[in-house]
Every structure is written in C-alpha cells, then in structure tokens.
Amino acid sequence: MFGFSRLSSLLSKSSSTETKVYLFLDQVTLSHHQFTLLWKSYLKYGADSEQFTDALAKLQAIEHQADKLKREIEQTLYRKTLIPDLRSDVASLIEQTDRLINRQETVGLHLKIERPAIPYELHEDVLAQIATIADTIDHTILCAKSYFTDLQRVQEYHQKVIAFETDADEACTRVKTHLFNLDIPLMQKVQLRYFFDRIDRVANLAEDISDRISIFTLKRAQ
Amino acid sequence: MDIAIWIFLSSGLFLGWSLGANDAANVFGTAVGSKMVKFSTAALICSVMVILGAVISGAGASHTLGALGKVSAIGGAFTVALSAATTVYLMTKAGLPVSTGQSIVGAIIGWNLFSGMPTDSAVLTKILSTWVMCPILAAITAVLLYMGINKAIKLIRPGMFQLDNWTRIGLILAGAFGSYSLGANNIANVMGVFVTSTPLDPIELFNIEFSAAMQLFFIGAVAISVGVFTYSKKVMMTVGDNLISMTPVTAWVVVMAHSIVLFIFSSQSLSNAFVDIGLPAIPLVPVSSSQAVIGAVIGIALLKRLPVQWKVLGRVLMGWVITPIMSAIACFIGLFVVQNLFNQVVM
Question: I want to staple B187 with a disulfide (CB 3.0 to 4.6 A). Which of A215, B54, B101, B234 is the partner?
Fold first, then answer.
C-alpha cells in the first residue's frame, strides 16, 4: 500500500494548496467586513468603546490567520506543488493581496493610537467611501478566484474593479472637499486627510492587484 | 549461477547502469527537475516499468541486433558490451548526450570486423534508417500531440489547480509508459549481445517459463534500475532547459512523443498488426531515447517558432556520428587484448 498512499498524497497536494488559497482569499473578504464594522463603531462609540476594541482585535486575528496561510501557501508552492511556470505569479498575487489586509489593519491601529476627532458632518461621506472600497475589494477577489477557475471571466471583473476604484477616488475627493470646507483647525484637517488618503490607498492597491491578475491571465492564455 | 557468468555479464551490467543513469532523465527529467514529481516516486515507477518492459517486450529489438552480428562467445559479448559502455561513459564525461544503441551497434560492427564476419548491409541500413526516422517521427508525433492537447485545454478550460493535477497525473503516466518503452526497446542494447552465448537455462516459476533471454533481460533491467536510483537524479535536475525552455505541458508532450516512438520501434504486436492490414512491418530496432527526446523538442520549437540553441544541437549531432565509430575502434582493440592478453575465446 506504500506506493498507493504515496501516489494519492502526490495527487492531493495541489488540492490542499487550492483549499488554502481559497481560505486565504476569504480572509480578505472577512477583513474588509471587519474594517467596515471597525469604522462604524469608531464613528458611533469612539476609540474607547468595547465595540471598537472588539472589531480591531478581530481584524488583527484575521490578519494573523492570513499571514499564516500565506506562509503555508508560499512554502508548498515552492517546495512541491503547482505548475512551475505559474508559481511565481501565484506567489506574487498572494503577497500583494496580503498587503490589502495589512493596510486595513494599519488604519485601524492608527485610529486607536491617534484617536482623530471626526466631525459628525463627515460621517456619511466616510462610510460611503468605505462602501465603495468594499465593492472594489469584492470584485478584486472575484477576479482572483476567476484566475484560478475560469480565465474568461477575469477581464469582466477587472473592468468592474477599475470602475469601482474610480468611484472610490471620487468618494475620497468628496470627503476631503467636505472636510476642508468645515470650520475646524487646519491641523485637524490635515490629520483627517491623512486617514482618508490611507483608506483610499486600499482601493488603489486592490486595483493594482486586479491589473496584475489581468497580465497574469494574458500570460497564461498565450 | 556460475561466478564466471557474472564477471562476463559485468560489462553489460555497467552498460545497463549507465543507461539507467542517463536515460531515466529523458523520461522523468522535467517532472522531477520542476518538482512536479518527487525523485523517489519517479525512480520507483521507472524501475518497475523498465523491468516489466524489458522482460515482456524486450525480445523484438534484440533480434535485430542479433541479426547484425551473432556474437557467439561470451568473452566476445563481454568485450562488445564493455567497449560500448566505455564509449558511453567517456562521451558522457565529455558532456555529450550519447546513445547506448549507437554505441553497441558500433561495437558489434567492431566485432564483425575483428572476427571477419560479414556485416549484413540490409540490417545495418535498417538500423541506420531508424536513427534518422526516430527523431523525425518523434518531432511529428510531438507536434501533433502538442496541437491536440492545446486544443483540448482551450475547449475544456480547466482551472489552474485542475490543470496542475492533470499535468501531474499525465507526467506520471507518460513517465511510466516511457519507462516501459525504454525497457522494451533499450534492453537489447544492454543484454542483446549476450543472448546467443549465454549459458543460462530456462527456469519455470509459477507455471510460467522464463527463457534464458528473459532472465538476461531481467538482470539487465535491474542494472538499469540501479542506475536510475544511484545516479539519474543529478542528470534529471539538469535536463529540460538545454535546448528550449519547457512548461510542464510541453514536457508531457515531449515524454509522450518519445515513449510512443520507442514503443513503435519495439512492439512486435504493433508490427504484426501493421502487416495484417497490408502495411510494411515496423523495423524493431533499439533506438536512442535521447534522440527521440531531442526530435520531439525540436518539433515543438519549430511549431512555436522558439529559438533553438543550434550550437548545442550541433554538438549533439556530432556525438551521434562519433559514438559508433569510436565504439567500433574500441571494440576491435578490446577484442585483440582480451584474446591475446587474457587468452579468452571471443568468437
């Protein structure tokens, strides 16, 4: 039975990597969901609230889990599994996607450290900006999943990512314009602008990832 | 078994060892080199299939070699195999991928020259023509397979992991088929010259009679397996990207084309089937596994308009011409030494 178990373990390798890749991509969806909750609780209850602390802890746990999965995937990719000419593309995709989670966690941490005072007039704009980023990320993940399952759909999702990222840019400009029209100290305006830009960078990164996937797909289709 | 037989067979075993060390890389090289398949898995499959191929289908190609020169004394067979093995060893040391088949044919001609036996020009022409046909046929097979598999992938549109799994299974199956064909086709090179002079008696195991040739082929195949396990890993790790860079799917096509060609040139039943439908019989000749691989690689390179390293190819072609000549000279000198210095009967 030695030969049989060896053969079946050989064949199950790529399916275990596949499971890990999908689990990893799920962490991105979970992380953005948590990021949205984090901002909602910050705006409603403040940095000292139980809700905010809880949301940040959960976001950090997701980041931890994603890091662990990323390392496992990279190790198996290079040690034994997956078509060799695609290994580096997949590893780079995982690496970039992991940065999406890291960026969200960093924004969360800075909220906790800096505790910026966000005027009530901006709340709606901030949540709208976060919502467009959620759309961008969701479609980036769909684009990534299509790269693994159905190459034909990659371009379709890529186009949607580009459209949502433009919306995110507009949302960012809107919130910043609104911010600088308020009658508050310039120092506070600059601090808040920094936060809105950091949120916008999440969408930019999502678009970068989608661009890379589109190039990887062209390479594979050749 | 008499110890003297082992001493005489040692040169054939050495040849088998070097065949295993070099040619297993043609079958499993890219799969192992790219880490798609573990070396130990590849070596295990390769060894078992080489032995099966040699014992079950080894006879066909061996008859053709026997027709080229009937090496009648075991001392002569020893010298023929030793000179072929030495030539392969030296050429490999010089960095040229050589064919055990070409080396043994050269050595047999050396024996014919030494013993004054005529070389059957019809048989020689048949063998030489397959050396030209083998890479061409491999190239054509590879091109057809490549076009077919690409069409299938575009039609079925498998996901990346699915394609990965299929390629892995494909490489294992193609490797197993390639190893079987290698054993069937190339065992003649390793043990063919001993068939006429062997003092082995047929034995019966589980109601199946194993002829002297089958026993010889089994021993030779075990030597090939030892070569696979002890030395082929090094060759496997360096094979693949020498002429063109290959993807695993391309590698699969190359291994399959190689295996099909080797199988064609060793299958008695396929040849019989050809005759039955009114086609000419397929010449059952030991062909070079490396030649088949190179033919397949060039075929794909031409199809995809990839740059081929013609300089490397030129060196390979030079090796194919030098090998039989060098081997014939080495055998002639070797026979003289064995006959006159060691007082052994060589013909």
Answer: B54
How far apart CA B224 and CA B16 sit, in angstroms, is: 5
Q: What is the pLDDT, as a whole number, of residue A9?
A: 56
Other Cβ atoms closer than 10 A to B66: 19
| Nearest residue of B to residue A4, measured between CA atoms | B41
pLDDT, mean over chain B: 85
Decide if pLDDT at A75 tops 70: yes
- Cα separation, B302 vs B139, in Å, equals 9
DSSP class per residue in B103-152: HHHHHHHHHHHHHTPPP-HHHHHHHHHHHHHHHHHHHHHHHHHHHHHHHH
Residues of A in contact with B44 (CB under 8 A): 3, 6
Residue of A nearest to B247 (CA): A85
Q: Which residue has the tokens 């030539």?
A: B87
Judge whether residue A42 has pLDDT over 60.
yes
Both tokens of B2, joined, read 């008499």
Read off φ and ψ for residue A81, nearest 5 degrees.
-100, 170
Q: What digits encode the pLDDT tens for the residues B222-274?
A: 999 999 898 887 767 665 455 566 778 888 899 899 999 988 888 888 888 88
**What residues in A contact B168, CB-CB < 8 Å?**
10-11, 13-14
B162 to chain A, closest Cα gap in Å: 8
Interface predicted TM-score of the whole assembly (ipTM), two decimals: 0.74
pLDDT of B61 reads 77
Cβ neighbors of B91 (< 8 A, separation 6 or more) are B98, B103, B319, B322, B323, B326
A137: closest CA among A53, A187, A73, A202? A202
Give the Cα separation of A66 and A89 in Å (integer): 18
d(Cα A221, Cα A21) in Å, to the nearest integer?
Answer: 21
Query: Closest by alpha carbon to B45, among B59, B60, B31?
Result: B31
Calculate mean pLDDT across residues B99-104: 86
Any idea how long chain B is? 347
Domains, in order of start, for chain A: 2-221 (1.20.58.220)
Which residue of chain B has the CA closest to A82? Answer: B164
**Cα distance from B88 to chain A (closest Cα, Å)?**
32
Put simply, whether A149 touches B (Cβ < 8 Å) is yes
**Percentage of residues of chain A with pLDDT beyond 90:** 78
Query: What's the half-sphere exposure (Cβ side, CA atoms, 13 Å) at B224?
Result: 36
Report the predicted TM-score, pTM, of the whole model to 2 decimal places: 0.80
- Domain ranges within chain B, ordered by starting residue: 3-340
The pLDDT tens digits for A93-104 are 999 999 999 999
Digit-coded pLDDT (tens) for B316-336: 788 888 889 999 999 999 999
